[in-house]
Amino acid sequence: MAEIKCVGVVGAGQMGSGIAQLAATNGLDVWLLDADRDALSRATGAISSSINRFVSKGHVLRLLHDPLETLEFIFIFFEVRDDAMRRLRLTSNLQDLCSADIIVEAIVESEDVKKKLFKDLDGIAKSSAILASNTSSISITRLASATKRPSQVIGMHFMNPPPIMKLVEIIRGADTSEETFVATKALAERFGKTTVCSQDYAGFIVNRILMPMINEAFHTLYTGVATKEDIDSGMKHGTNQPMGPLELADLIGLDVCLSVMKVLHEGLGDSKYAPCPLLVQYVDAGRLGRKRGIGVYDYRKATQKPITPSPRL
Ligand SMILES: NC(=O)c1ccc[n+]([C@@H]2O[C@H](COP(=O)([O-])OP(=O)(O)OC[C@H]3O[C@@H](n4cnc5c(N)ncnc54)[C@H](O)[C@@H]3O)[C@@H](O)[C@H]2O)c1
User: pTM score, two decimals?
Assistant: First the structure.
């Protein structure tokens, strides 16, 4: 398998832009693709300001393994940021990803849409390229079946936000080769990540455990056990989590949470995974979380017209 020098990332949303940032700041050339041109320009802004924050906090300096004086620090600050931004190229044309050694897909969590993309990627990617999915829950084996290279298809599940969270969960499909696994693990480690390996069953490791907890938090709210603030505060302070499950759901995206619950419900065939009706209703209402400005909580500026939530909520 060829050395990884160029990474393609499909989907420039919150996950794809973070994955592209990781690749660019770790010295790889990156093609970032999105069907939506606005998403690409939002991603460039988000990546640039995230690198600024990282560098100013000294995170990137850790990569340089060198104690620095202030002037050197400032010089390298600009070097690292400019080098990463130079390595990042944006496109809406799939053909541009033909030079990538690995393509990481981070588009909408829909099996049909992802399968179509994998089929198209299989047609344009070089024969040695790995096709990886950042899916939260969809079967890697089924995505691989849309291609003629199932041994080179793998799950590379970054956590949100990718530049900060330590874990990458690697999922082996039924036909994923050892060579593909080793190369993908090595790439995650190059990004400074800890890896775990999961077999290909619905939800893998992290979401199999995390999403039912989030779903249960929605049930707790839905049945009036407590307010959203008390549910989050209870779990935050009572179980030492950095944020409560409802806040976390808003960060992840309620649409993503709902999709994962549906996959768990269908894939594991147990009614305990049925999505909470309140979660379904929020998604139906377009309350998708932070990315939409409103989810369980309202993140919009006070100047905007406030919504009147139902008394129960
Ligand atoms: N949000 C999270 O916390 C999280 C964590 C881990 C994994 N994931 C997974 O990562 C993936 C992306 O999630 P996200 O939160 O970044 O979503 P997002 O909605 O922020 O971004 C998705 C992007 O994909 C683009 N897109 C959709 N279909 C496309 C297509 N066919 N071709 C090109 N671009 C397309 C959209 O325009 C959008 O910009 C999903 O599979 C999700 O399950 C999400």
Answer: 0.87
